[in-house]
């Protein structure tokens, strides 16, 4: 479920599309031998709304599967790479067939908070074999900070500035309210219903507002104190 349509999403990070560039359509392969990451830094606190990426395809008949994740940064000295901490993830089969890019739009459902000034990564990975894999398109112009893995897909090569991976990240200004369980910008009867329907033991459950492994009176009290409509 997307965030409320009544609350306009803002662009946190964006690049040009892949069309009209000097080199034509190109980009790094996303396959069993290589994962790819692009970095962005919000200018303020946001709640993630959606991620948009242009992919093309080395196959003209198979729609390869790709996992896209939002990750925190792992910085050691001057080296910045994606960490193993995943904040959100999507599993898709790219729509593109052949080298005709198609933009994938990935909607956030988890109320992920992004803090201003912190580094985050969008990572694409796949178990597809070479030559039947997705290709993350570079933008027609611009540069951005990106990184790729070595052949084990675990060890990241040091990131750096280069051709811009096509990437748009949108969000709602401000960090998510944990009592707004359905992320519609309000704390109301819909959120109350979510708490009541999840009552009891509920590990990693959005209705477990205080994250103690239970949906109980403590969560209900927190929700009622944040009531907005």
Summarize the structure.
The protein has 229 residues and is mainly beta.
Describe the structure.
Helix content is 8%, strand content 41%. The protein has helices spanning 189-197, 217-225, and strands at 10-13, 29-30, 36-40, 46-57, 65-76, 79-93, 102-107, 113-114, 120-125, 134-136, 138-148, 160-165, 168-173, 200-201, 214-215.
Number of helices: 2
Beta-strand portion reads 35-45%
Specify the CATH class of the largest domain.
Answer: Mainly Beta
- The assigned CATH architecture of the largest domain is Sandwich
Instruction: Give the class from helix and strand content and strand pairing.
Output: mainly beta
Major sheet attributes: 7 strands, antiparallel
Mean pLDDT: 92
Give the radius of gyration: 19 Å
- The N- to C-terminal Cα distance equals 20 Å
Determine the oligomeric state from the structure: single chain
Count structural domains: 2
Give me some keywords for this one:
229 residues; Jelly Rolls; six-stranded antiparallel β-sheet; single chain; mainly beta; 2 domains; Type 1 dockerin domain
Task: Explain the layout of strands and helices.
Blueprint: E1 10-13, E2 29-30, E3 36-40, E4 46-57, E5 65-76, E6 79-93, E7 102-107, E8 113-114, E9 120-125, E10 134-136, E11 138-148, E12 160-165, E13 168-173, H1 189-197, E14 200-201, E15 214-215, H2 217-225
Antiparallel strand pairs: 1-13, 2-10, 3-9, 3-11, 4-7, 4-8, 4-10, 4-13, 5-6, 5-9, 11-12, 14-15
């Amino acid at each position: 479920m997307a965030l409320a349509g009544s609350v306009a999403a803002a662009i946190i990070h964006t690049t040009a599309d892949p069309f009209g560039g000097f080199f034509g359509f190109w980009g790094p392969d996303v396959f069993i031998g290589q994962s790819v990451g692009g970095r962005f830094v919000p200018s303020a606190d946001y709640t993630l709304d959606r991620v948009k990426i242009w992919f093309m395809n080395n196959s003209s008949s198979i729609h390869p599967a790709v996992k896209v994740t939002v990750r925190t940064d792992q910085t050691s000295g001057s080296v910045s790479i994606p960490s193993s901490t995943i904040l959100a993830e999507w599993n898709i089969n790219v729509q593109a067939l052949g080298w005709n890019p198609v933009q994938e739009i990935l909607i956030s459902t988890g109320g992920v908070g992004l803090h201003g000034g912190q580094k985050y990564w969008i990572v694409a990975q796949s178990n597809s074999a070479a030559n039947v894999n997705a290709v993350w398109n570079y933008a027609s112009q611009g540069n951005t900070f990106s990184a790729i893995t070595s052949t084990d897909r675990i060890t990241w090569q040091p990131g750096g500035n280069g051709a811009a991976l096509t990437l748009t990240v949108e969000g709602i200004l401000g960090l998510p309210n944990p009592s707004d369980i359905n992320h519609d910008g309000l704390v109301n009867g819909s959120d109350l219903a979510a708490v009541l329907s999840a009552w009891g033991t509920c590990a990693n459950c959005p209705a477990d507002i205080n994250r103690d492994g239970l949906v109980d009176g403590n969560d209900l009290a927190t929700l009622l104190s944040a009531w907005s409509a």
